[in-house]
Amino acid sequence: MAEETKVQQYKVDAVNALIEEFGEVKDFIFTDYRGLSVAQITNLRLKLREKNATYKVVKNRFAKLALEQMNLPVVGDNLVGPTAMAYGKDELGPVAKALFELSKEMPVEVKGGLVDGNVFDAAQIEAFSKLPTRLELIARLMGTMNAPVQTFVSTLNAIPEKFVRTLQAVADSKSE
Fold first, then answer.
1. Whole-angstrom Cα distance, residue 87 to residue 147?
2. Are residue 81 and residue 14 in the same domain, yes or no?
3. Are residues 162 and 93 in the same domain?
4. Where on the phi/psi map is residue 169: left (φ > 0), alpha (ψ -120 to 50), or beta?
5. pLDDT grade, residue 4 (50/70/90)?
6. How far apart are the two ends of the chain, measured CA to CA in Å?
């Protein structure tokens, strides 16, 4: 007769709360927050909120179960030791950039991340933070696509301008 393990309800509730809070989020950055004061964590949360992101201290076991139930990859050592997760509904690049900038003035250490279904270590997340954002790439593309049109328009405008200047020069020379 196998013994049935009884899972305490508060643990089930905690995992379900994480799943609900994560919602449709699929990208996370895992950090070690050891050494941060309450004021520093509050400041960190405010800075990340500006990037439309959340910074949450989690119990590793509950986070592992929540991610597993959301059918996301196993994140391994990212959920070892004191862990806080940064995640947002928008792009994760600006969040990663903000975390690395804040790590220069605060004892927060990026452990790694889960981006687009792939598990990355801290070095890969740092490289990811240096990439241009989606909006920056779109702006560059639009600028590149717009350049030939601008050149064409200025060329078309130059023809009548040159003609008008030529007529003005002729009129000026006849009036003398």
1. 37
2. yes
3. no
4. alpha
5. low
6. 118
- Which helix (H) or strand (E) element contains residue 164? helix 134-175
The structure tokens listed for 57 are 């201290």
- pTM here? 0.71
Residue in 33, 25, 73, 15 with CA at minimum distance from that of residue 53: 25
Domain count across the chain: 2
Q: Rounded to 10 degrees, what is the CA torsion of 164, 167, 172, 176?
A: 180
Q: How far is the C-alpha of 113 from the C-alpha of 32, rounded, in Å?
A: 12
Q: Quick one: tokens of 83? A: 């862990």
Q: Which helix (H) or strand (E) holds 86?
A: strand 83-88
The size of the chain, in residues, is 176
3 part of a folded domain? no
Q: Which domain holds residue 117?
A: 9-131
173's tokens: 């020379």
CATH number of the domain within which 21 lies: 3.30.70.1730
Share of the chain above pLDDT 70, in %: 97
- Is 4 a member of any domain? no
Do 71 and 15 share a structural domain?
Answer: yes
